[in-house]
Amino acid sequence: MAFAFLAGILSRFAVSQAGGLIMEAAFGIEEMWKVQMCMTVGELMIASDAMYHHFFDIEKKFAVISALRCDQAVLGIIDDFVIQVDIVLVCFAYTSVNGGYQISVRSCDDQISAGKLAAFVCEGIGSGGGHAKKAGGRISEKLLEEKYGKIDLFDFICEKMNMLIPG
Asked: What is the DSSP letter of 57?
């Protein structure tokens, strides 16, 4: 009986990957949150290592965090955690993906939209956008190099932030 119940949960979880509302209908919002917020030990290690090796610009109140190759959801978790730091108004987390980078952006500053910031950073070299508080994007490594030369994504993001927030 327990096995059948577990198999039902796993099959519902697999189906939910294609359509998120199925989980809510099957379990209710609280149980759905518990299942969807599950991360592996490996992902926890990637997130903790990335946060440990963070960069904060204390004057301009932004953070940039590079993570080992991971899922977009892990980048979001990293950003969601770091944006809670009292000196951070904007946070970027990024990881390498095939042919480029995946970025996640968070903002808790009403004057800086995460969606507009993601679009600004990705303009001409990928695509980005989202909401005022949470956003994401994808940057082509080839287009980044063609447009800006050999530049590390970390340095590129910092340059973009320095353009946006003069010091």
From this structure: E
Residue pLDDT, tens place only, 48-99: 999 999 999 999 999 999 999 998 899 999 999 999 999 999 999 999 999 9
Backbone angles phi, psi at 115, to 5 degrees: -65, -45
Task: Count CB-CB contacts under 10 A for residue 153.
Answer: 20
pLDDT at 96: 95
Question: Which has the closest alpha carbon to 104: 45, 51, 42?
Answer: 51
CB 98 within 8 Å of CB 70? no
Asked if residues 44 and 71 have their Cβ atoms less than 8 Å apart, the reply is: no
Report the C-alpha gap between 56 and 18 in whole angstroms.
36
Beta-carbon contacts of residue 32 (< 8 Å; ≥ 6 apart): 16, 23, 24, 26
Q: In the structure, how many helices (H) and strands (E) does the chain have?
A: 8, 6
Give this prediction's pTM: 0.76
8-30 pLDDT per residue, tens: 433 333 433 433 444 444 445 55
